[in-house]
Design goal:
single chain, alpha/beta, Rossmann fold, 2 domains, 19 helices, about 40% helix, disordered N terminus, oxidoreductase activity, Nascent polypeptide-associated complex subunit beta, NADP, Epimerase_deHydtase
């Protein structure tokens, strides 16, 4: 069967339908009386996201911006750089601040309050990462002490000014809009699992560096939520900045460990580039208040995952035409987006049975009626929204897509599921796989809402495939890696601290190879309902697979011989039935990154 067109649902459900810079633009006229504090930043030329945040805010003429940082020379260089890019000078002031020191924090708060009685927006974006097991001068584990406790104390000291600003705005007859934005990270997913562990200095000091970092990022989320509960007049949200890209691994190394990090305060926002890096902070800072949930944690929103862009690019290069069904447009000249709410069955049905024969020329070029549907949209994990909303959104949209496709006579549907259905990710405590390699025949009984929703989708697909006699292929996707992520901090930990990454079976999928998997699925007919592990060939470790598994999981049986570096979450089925062959092995890119770091 030759596919003329694919209807792809490639977006991810979000709280907002606005691009962050749209929010900044509409919010701009109200900034004139505002005083901002971007507190705890440091600056490096190659990773200057705080500077970009200040630059974008300064373009809208706030009355004053305070920039607090540990290294004065870098902060003042950043201010000079920002001023050079503004049409007119902005009032940007430096305050000395070391978040690892209560003494410094108190001095910084006193300095600010001696100069200003107004604070409209407080951005807490400093941080440290990957440190040895040490303490701050006040006795806290250094990552939790800097990334959370320091921010907590600073916010507490500035709270009277924030509250006074609320009253000033209210007295003027306007609606108060005072905000605190806390920079968290997706690393909260690897934090300790109990509150006692998260808050115990001895426990943290005995944990791995990544668990300690994850604890600090989880604490950022808890702090933002509790601040909102106690002081609802102040909008408090936490944000994950997006894809991480850091040079921290080039810090001094020792022979006794993989790496040794300096304790220099560095920004906790790491992005692919400076222009995209500040977007989620700007989103939280400028989106109209009634469009935000007080106390919420936001992953990149008003934003389409680059993963969908890569998949679509691969499909276009393979000769397919694509109609994108999403609430956000796709910035690709060859893809038309039909704005569609996937949770609305009527909209989905109508979108897939649209007016394909219109003679009026459309500048974007309308594709023909679709022959297949690829559904990738949904909340990407637990804890982005309440569990019931995760379940509703991720199952309702999938049901609507599958039902509409079947009843409209579309003969192929490809659905994104997840390796979380194996029950090790998001488990209640530590869970083990029943055997290795992990294949699609394993009985699955996950306990978390996200994975249960994915499993429900698989059952829905199986029933509709049998009822209508069509092909529905399920891709159990794990950690999706984009090309630039091979050199980031998380992927480094995949390789050098593999015990932490049992949750995805030491597997990954290069986003370009995911696109090629979708293409292979489109071109292979007649398999009915099938489930495939969507992974690349090799495990993310330099040890041989059987050696690694026997060393770390001696009680888990290995039921067949494994190739030298074969991924434990097996992709043998997708290679056998769909003819998939990987093109982007991780060692091809990671080795180059390692050599570059050593140069």
């Amino acid at each position: 069967m030759e596919f003329r067109d694919i209807a792809a649902t490639s977006g991810f459900a979000t709280h907002s339908l606005r691009h962050p810079l749209e929010g900044l633009s509409s919010f701009g006229p109200t900034l004139n009386e505002a005083t901002f504090g971007l507190l705890g930043s440091s600056f490096k030329p190659e990773r200057d996201i705080p500077r970009e945040t200040i630059l974008q805010l300064a373009k809208h003429h706030p009355s004053r911006i305070y920039l607090a940082a540990r290294t004065e020379s870098k902060a003042r260089d950043a201010i000079i750089s920002i001023q050079s890019q503004l049409a007119s000078p902005a009032d940007i002031r430096y305050i000395s601040l070391d978040l690892a020191s209560f003494k410094s924090i108190r001095a910084a708060a006193d300095k600010f309050q001696s100069e200003s009685d107004r604070l409209d927006l407080l951005i807490l974006n400093a941080g440290t990462m990957g440190n040895p097991a040490t303490k701050t001068e006040d006795g806290f584990e250094v990552q939790l002490g800097t990334n959370h406790v320091g921010h907590f104390l600073l916010s507490k000291l500035l709270l009277p000014t924030l509250q006074k600003t609320v009253e000033q705005i209210r007295a003027s007859g306007a609606t108060p809009d005072v905000r605190v934005v806390s920079l968290s990270s997706a690393a909260h997913m690897i934090s300790p699992t109990t509150f006692e562990e998260l808050t115990s200095t001895p426990s943290l000091l005995s944990a791995s560096t990544w668990h300690r970092y994850g604890a600090s990022k989880a604490a950022n989320i808890f702090f933002a939520s509790e601040l909102a509960r106690r002081h609802p007049e102040i909008l408090s949200v936490s944000v994950h900045p997006g894809a991480v890209k850091s040079d921290l691994y080039t810090h001094a190394k020792s022979s006794s460990s993989f790496m040794k990090y300096s304790l220099e305060l560095v920004s906790s926002i790491f992005f692919r580039n400076t222009s995209s890096g500040a977007l989620n902070t700007l989103f939280a800072a400028t989106t109209p208040r009634d469009q935000l949930v007080n106390g919420a944690y936001y992953t990149p929103v008003g934003y389409r995952s680059d993963a969908g862009q890569y998949v679509i690019s691969e499909l276009l290069s393979a000769g397919h035409q694509i109609l994108n069904l999403d609430l956000m447009p796709m910035s690709h000249p060859d893809v038309h987006t039909l704005k569609t709410d996937l949770a609305d069955s009527g909209q989905v049905f109508n979108a897939l049975s649209g007016q394909w024969q219109l003679h009026e020329p459309f500048p974007e070029g309308l594709p023909p009626r679709p022959d297949a549907v690829i559904h990738l949209a949904g909340y990407a994990r637990n804890m982005l929204v309440p569990d019931n909303e995760t379940f509703r959104a991720n199952t309702q949209g999938t049901y609507n897509i599958v039902e509409a496709a079947c009843k409209l006579g579309i003969r192929k549907v490809i659905l994104a599921s997840s390796v979380t259905v194996y029950g090790v990710s998001f488990a209640q405590g530590d869970a083990d796989y029943p055997y290795f390699p992990i294949d699609e025949d394993q009985d699955v009984n996950p306990t978390d809402t996200y994975a249960i929703a994915k499993l429900c989708n698989e059952r829905v697909a199986r029933g509709f495939a049998a009822r209508f006699g069509i092909d529905i292929y399920i891709l159990r996707i794990g950690r999706v890696i984009e090309p630039e992520e091979y050199n980031d901090d998380i992927f480094y930990s995949y390789v050098h601290e593999p015990a932490l990454w049992k949750v995805h079976g030491w597997s990954y999928i290069d986003v370009r190879d995911l696109g090629r998997m979708c293409d292979a699925a489109l071109r292979t007919d007649g398999l009915g309902f099938q489930v495939f592990n969507a992974t690349n060939d090799a495990m993310t470790n330099f040890k041989r697979t059987e050696e690694f598994l026997k060393e770390h999981y001696p009680n888990t049986p290995i039921v067949r011989a494994l190739e030298e570096f074969e991924v434990p979450l097996s992709n043998a089925k997708i290679k056998r039935l769909l003819g998939f062959q990987e093109k982007h092995p991780w060692k091809k890119y990671f080795t180059l990154a390692e050599k570059k770091a050593k140069a």
